[in-house]
Amino acid sequence: MLEAGVHFGHGTRKWNPRMAPYISAKRKGIHITNLTRTARFLSEACDLLFDAASKGKQFLIVGTKNKAADSVARAAIKARCHYVNKKWLGGMLTNWPTTETRLHKFRDLRTEQKTGGLNRLPKRDAAMLKRQLSRLQTYLGGIKYMTRLPDIVIIVDQQEEYTALRECITLGIPTICLIDTNCDPDLADISIPANDDAIASIRLILNKLVVTICEGRSSYIRNP
């Protein structure tokens, strides 16, 4: 964790006092996260994920800032999870019927493209539908196979994904959240104190979580 910079927090002026129990020191104007607490809550998160995966539950991983986007997509694909890594569309979960309608439209357009249906349309209509398909791919590509609300949501940056977190809280969907020293540790069901700005830190935490999901899924396959 030290090599990945998981322990580096924000500057001491940019912090949430509720994070005090998760901070071990100050160094050169920066808060240092207590890695013992990180390991403890990461272990709790892994226990929850293994149990859920072994029961066939569905997961959604959310992380839309540039530093997290690629890691989120890779981790989600590795563990066959749904993901959002470009932009969280308000109401994506709380207004699920609308999201479902968009997903049906997205799947229909993908089918039309694969079967060559779009190429048989007038050029203007085809261009319009291809632009629509491109937008849907950008925002919904990671959840294109999602047919219902997820059972657990993993959030990479609490501040960046606050809308997604609030939607989960409203719906009672359990959340696991990476929290830096400027976050509120009381919002998520399990908060993992960690550097949410360093790619290596994000990748390390996500990898631990998705490996656990994969192990849980293997258990589910072996013991249906």
Q: How would you describe what is shown here?
A:
With 224 residues, the protein is an alpha/beta fold. It contains six helices and eight strands; from the N terminus they run βββαβαβααβαββα. The chain has helices spanning 35-53, 66-78, 96-114, 123-140, 162-171, 199-222; strands spanning 8-11, 23-27, 30-33, 59-62, 82-84, 152-155, 175-179, 190-193. The strands form two sheets. The protein has a five-stranded parallel beta sheet, sandwiched between helices. A three-stranded antiparallel beta sheet has the order 1-3-2. Helix 1 runs parallel beside helix 6 (199-222) and helix 3 (96-114) crosses helix 4. The mean pLDDT is 86.
Please tell me how large the radius of gyration is. 19 Å
Order of strands in the sheet with most strands: 5-4-6-7-8
Structural class: alpha/beta
Average pLDDT for all residues: 86
Strand content: 5-15%
Q: Quote the distance from N terminus to C terminus.
A: 35 Å
Order of helices and strands: EEEHEHEHHEHEEH
> Which shape, going by the Cα principal axes?
elongated
GO molecular function: structural constituent of ribosome
Pfam family, one: Ribosomal_S2
Protein name: Small ribosomal subunit protein uS2c
Subcellular location: Plastid
Sum this structure up briefly.
By secondary structure, this protein is α/β, with parallel strands linked by helices. 46% of the residues lie in helices and 15% in strands. The strands form two sheets. It has a five-stranded parallel sheet with strand order 5-4-6-7-8, with helices on both faces. A three-stranded antiparallel sheet has the order 1-3-2.
